Amino acid sequence: MSNNTKPKNKSRRRFFLKAGLGTMGVLALGTYVFRNPMRRKIYELSETLVPPYNGSGTEANLWFEMTKENKLIFHSPKVEMGQGTFTGFAQIVADELDLNINQIIVKAAETDTGIIDGMSTGGSLSIASMYQPIREMAATMREKIKLEAAKKLSIDASSIKTADGVLTAEGKIMTYAEALAEVTDWSLPDTPELRPFSSYKYIGKPIPRTDLKAKIVGEPIFGMDAEMPDMLHAAVIRPEHVGSSLKSADTSVAEKMPGVVKVVQMDGWIGIIAESFPQALAAKNKVKVEWDIPTVWTEQSLRDYLKIGEGDKMITQKSGAELEEGGDGVIDLEFTSPIGAHAQIEPNGAVAHYKDGKVTVKLSTQVIGITQKQVAEALNIDTENVNIIGTYLGGGFGRRLDTNHAAHAALMSKEVGKPVKYFFTRKEEFQNDMFRPPTHHIIRGKVDNNGQLEALEHHYASGDVAINAALFPPVAGTVLGTDVGAMRGGNIMYKNLPNYRAVQWHRTLPFATSFWRSLGLLANTFAIESFIDEMALKAGKNPVEYRLAMLGDDENQQRIRKVIEECASKANYNDKVSGNKAMGFAASIDAGSPCAQVVEVSIIDNEIKVEKVTCVMDCGLAVNPDQVRAQCEGSIIMGISAAVHEKMTIKDGRLFPIIYGPYDMALMRNSPKEIDVHLIQGVDVPLPVGEPPLGPIGAAIGNAIRRITGKRLTDLPMTLA
Amino acid sequence: MKITFNINGKSQSVDVDEHTPLLWVVRDVLNLKGTKFGCGKAACGACTLHVDGEAVRSCSYPIKFAEGKEVTTIEGLGEGDNLHPVQQAWMEEIVPQCGYCQPGFMMATAALLEKIPNPTDEDIDNNIVNICRCATYYRMRKAIHRAAEIKGTNS
Questions:
Q1: How far from A534 is each of A144, A403, A574, B138, CA to CA, in Å?
Q2: The predicted structure's pLDDT at residue A17
Q3: Which DSSP state fits B94?
Q4: Is A633 within 8 Å of B94 when comparing Cβ atoms?
């Protein structure tokens, strides 16, 4: 901790070891060369493990900064994109450091301070992975402050009490800021025993978001709001056709447009730099570009390219015997999901300033560290000469796990010698997204004499999610063999089944696909849970009981069981159709957090309307139950949007639509008026929250529709017309 | 072209191309960043502000039409330090997640309540058609009803 200066004498103490496991359980390079059964073990582990923080900074005094006004700045290695992480961090810090929450300012750390996450802000892991380390660091800092106060007041540290940023002992009083003034020796005491949960004032309480007011009054906190003195504005031209490249461009007219400073032709893109954004945009429209388009992709050619049986095959789960395709009593159902766009409202962009071989970039990103490397590489300078300053994000949803456009801003700044700000137009967002890949699924099952499944297999094909992502080393895909992102929710969670397996087919598509909130979970759960529902119907059984019969007895299975039972009970689930209304049930487990949902659906004039959703999730300890609920509500509606509205298509080699509206998304009128969320604390540590509730929603809706209409809808988005 | 209008109660003159969208004048010339760019085609509502009390999607509203008019942005929605009833309700219901689209929604709601002081769910569905990717619609609906209540009590 410092009074606005960097600590000179860094402690050697390490608060937590850098972990071998990174996001989503991908082992750090150099430690995994396993045969297939071992790989499967890794995949299974990755479904339940919450990897610890894997960042750069292990020095507690780099995380905290005390201002003269006795406010504490917490330099967060994670960014805030709406998920409430900053609020959760403030709560955790406040309770072990004895501060009032209003005394804490959480800021995204910049690369210059060194405290950034080595991986990302993603995977629903921010609170889950940081809960323990932040408590330990805050508690250690508290002891350090007491020691410094004891020296200054010439009293025994053990007699000091701390509350609201103030130390008191033997009638004496001192603020934290006073205690830390002029401290130069930043060696730290041992981490004390953490306090019992029952003593916490903030952790576990539904306090309002700490960024609430700023967001209500419209403060300029986002990447799009960032400015630098004397900056210029730019627009960029990128390929519109999938797989196309820049052949030639005539920029002569654009260069003479009002306000235009410079037009630059770079590697695969063109930058138009002007005094204002409208001027840059107007000039962009005057650039004549010719593209090289080697293959014109269509929806059909894409479907033929991405399907089960094509590409790399990997068994991600195996127990018992394999079903024979077309064998006696073997039932197959086929499912698909479309290309999905992130469609976050704040476009991607960056403001960058290149000066004397150094670059500063401000932007909305989920990967501060990776962006630093990308900028350094593009400008051929050392990473230490690149400072990335993360802002609040106007939505992340996985889109900002690769923000390579920061490098474009930096390159343009170098060209004109001034700061340059640029961002994607909405058309560019839709055509140059790193999409949720389309998927193809075959669920294969066989039932016993009672109609219960005795074998269940999930065969699924997907484009890249984790493979080829900037987040992972290029060889990770080759070594692991499986796309661990596409695998999310792909394995069978019912372990009492005598035979089950999951088989992944992977292919890299001609356009970028990557992480979309919940990754494979959305489509995989849609397929598996729809099939199970169909089998329960065929057997004439209650779908809840049908599922419970497939669950085993270990701790994880018990947690799933409890969530399913609780959800059916809270929703008063029944399997009956009432006119044009019915309930639908589905469940899933993602990253260790089981979730079950009951939806109440009505159908009027072929319109699918979700009236009410009951959601039960066991995400362990909820640091802020209100924000956990908010994540469930948002995930549910985003899931409704994906399940019955959203779809990107590829037509004549281009991705469509290119604007909201035609890219149909759930709006206010499509959102349920009732969302009833119940949280179960099955374990006493926080588990992932932001993605698991996206699992059940699609299948739950499909299962309700099946009851009302008799139709089993197997393609997302589901439509009845 | 010189254009004069009132913004959040103060007179303001700008010299820009007459076709420049009001959004960019507000954001980049007047440096009021609360009004957001989302799509540039009046399709998402992130740029919603008021022109003479009407909700307007400012990304597609040429500045020349603002001449002599009263423009209100999120920064001017409340009175001084007092939050507008819509903002108060948004606070109470803890609506925002990422927060980026929220000023647009609050401006759209404030304009709605001037026309329909006690909107039904159907009124809300028909009139509040902005896009929120965090999908905070469930809390927004509650906040809109709450804002109507606060506003009714105040007046």
A1: 61, 42, 16, 31
A2: 28
A3: T
A4: no
Whether residue B46 and residue A81 make contact (CB cut-off 8 A), yes or no, is no
Tabulate helix, strand, coil % of chain B (nearest 5): 40, 15, 40
Element (H, E) at A423: strand A420-423
Give DSSP secondary structure letters for A343-400. --SSPPEEEEEEETTEEEEEE--S-HHHHHHHHHHHHT--GGGEEEEE-B-S--TTGG
Neighbours of A304 (CB within 10 A): 10
**Residue A177 exposure: Cα atoms within 13 Å on the Cβ side:** 13
Residues 6+ apart with CB under 8 A from A596: A563, A564, A566, A567, A568, A585, A586, A587, A615, A616, A617, A696
DSSP symbol at A252:
H
Q: What angle do CA A335, A337, A343 make, to 5 degrees?
A: 165
| Whole-Å CA distances, A260 to A157, A171, A423 | 64, 68, 17
The secondary structure of residue A185, as a DSSP letter, is B
Verify whether the Cβ–Cβ distance A394 to B103 is below 8 Å. no
Which of A285, A345, A612, A669 to mutate to probe the B interface, most B CBs <10 Å? A345
pLDDT at A471: 81
Cβ neighbour number for residue A291 with a 10 Å cutoff: 14
pLDDT tens-digit profile of A614-668? 999 999 999 999 999 999 999 999 999 999 999 999 998 999 999 999 999 999 9
Average pLDDT of the segment spanning A464-486:
80
The stretch A4-32 carries a mean pLDDT of 31
**Nearest Cβ partner of B138 from A216, A233, A672?**
A672
Q: Residues of A with CB below 8 A from B46's CB?
A: 345
Task: Show the domains of chain A with their CATH numbers.
Answer: 53-213 (3.30.365.10), 223-293+348-423 (3.30.365.10), 299-341+434-709 (3.30.365.10)
A52: which DSSP letter?
Answer: P
Residues 288-347 of A with CB under 8 A from B: 342-347
Give the 3-state secondary structure of residue A660.
strand
Q: Could you say which DSSP state residue B127 is in?
A: H
Report the residue from A225, A278, A345 with minimal CB separation from B133.
A345
ipTM of this complex? 0.98
Nearest to A238 by CA among A265, A258, A260: A265
**Preceding peptide of A594 cis, ω within 30°:** no
pLDDT of residue A41: 59
Grade residue A43 by pLDDT with cuts at 50, 70 and 90: low
Closest CA to A648 of A306, A344, A237, A299: A299
A721 touches chain B (CB under 8 A): no
Closest CB to B24 among A276, A637, A667: A276
Q: What is the DSSP letter of A590?
A: E
Q: How many CB atoms are located within 10 Å of the residue A67 CB?
A: 14
Per-residue pLDDT band for A611 (boundaries 50, 70, 90) equals very high
pLDDT value at residue A643: 98
pLDDT of residue B128: 98
What domains can be seen in chain B, in order of their start residue? Answer: 2-76 (3.10.20.30), 85-154 (1.10.150.120)
B153 CB neighbour count, 10 Å cutoff: 8
